[in-house]
Amino acid sequence: MNPAVQSLYDRVTGTITHVVFEEPGSPCAIIDPVLDYDPASGRTSTASADAVLAFVREKRLSVQWILETHAHADHLTGADYLREQAGGRIGIGARIPIVQRTFQKVFGWDRDEPADGSQFDWLFADEEKFAIGRLVARALHVPGHTPASVAYEIGDCVFVGDLIFRPEAGSARCDFPGGDARELYRSARRVLALAPSTRLFHCHDYPQQDEAPSVLSTVADQRERNVHLCDAIDEEQFVALRRARDAGLAVPRLILPSLQVNIRAGRLPPADAEGIRYLKIPLNVL
Questions:
Q1: Cα atoms in the 13 Å half-sphere on the side-chain side of 270
Q2: What is the pTM of this model?
Q3: Of residues 121, 155, 169, 160, the one with CA closest to residue 142
Q4: Disulfide engineering: 94 pairs with which of 65, 77, 123, 238, CB 3.0-4.6 Å?
């Protein structure tokens, strides 16, 4: 059974959130939602997540899962807000504790804040199958961008996270802690070994102002045209290309605020006695 997919684009962060369902009135999964954040004012808002909720309610969907492909470094996740508003369980790859432990010292987590993935409702093992109503889904461990990255195969679709971008854009960076270009190549080849007609739904796109975002491609498209991962490029060529490109990339603008929220499954830091919440910006660490 192949799913219906509604994709919603957040132009500020270039993030594409997907709602996956069988039909109106059925259970659904929400993949990679966004919590809006203005770094200049420190204000959060829920406009992007509310747009997802509006679609869910319009189609009379029940939220069964809120799925993260990884702990994003370029936007705050709206997972916790959506769970509060619509229910469902927040899931992520089983290796998320690796990422939590990496950044535990960076953000000065209290000792009572565990780095075991327990902030999430479910940690998916590689190849683990699960249900979205009558849809059958499978979690695929695809490290490289982060050590905990997963893709979700649902019917004839794979939600690839930051593994693969539109063919003209190639692949995601591999220079974050725990990232590895060789692992990303092998993860990508795993996905690109699926049927040529498999639909690959992107997590990010950065079009020009007058262009529509590239929401999906196919395995056949990527194998033929991806500038980093087409069939004509072997592993050694990819690793050399990716490492050279990563060496010139700037640190993502929202990496510090987003990671300390995202490794908590979208929960904001606890409020102080005055009811104010604070994000920590460690100096001279990254």
A1: 6
A2: 0.96
A3: 160
A4: 123
* Predicted pLDDT at 106: 87
> Whole-angstrom Cα distance, residue 137 to residue 219?
18
Q: Which residues of the chain have pLDDT under 50?
A: none
Phi (first) and psi of residue 244, to 5 degrees:
-65, -40
Query: Residue 88 is part of which domain span?
Result: 4-256
76 Cβ partners below 8 Å, 6+ apart? Answer: 34, 35, 36, 37, 44, 254, 257, 258, 261, 262, 266
60: left (phi over 0), alpha (psi -120 to 50) or beta: left
Alpha helices of 123-281 — where are they, by DSSP H?
181-192, 219-225, 235-246, 255-262
Angle at 254 between CA 50 and CA 247, to 5 degrees: 135
Which residue carries 């498999």 as its tokens?
198
In the chain, which ranges are continuous DSSP H helix?
Answer: 47-58, 79-86, 96-104, 181-192, 219-225, 235-246, 255-262
**CATH number of the domain enclosing 236:** 3.60.15.10
Return the number of other C-beta atoms located less than 10 Å from residue 128's C-beta. Answer: 17
Q: Which long-range contacts (CB under 8 A, 24 or more apart) does 218-225 make?
A: 219/191, 219/192, 219/194, 219/195, 220/196, 221/167, 222/164, 222/167, 222/192, 223/192, 223/196, 224/167, 225/167, 225/168
Burial class of 202 by CB neighbour count within 10 A (0 to 12, 13 to 18, 19+): buried
Residue 263 maps to a domain: no
**In a domain? residue 113:** yes
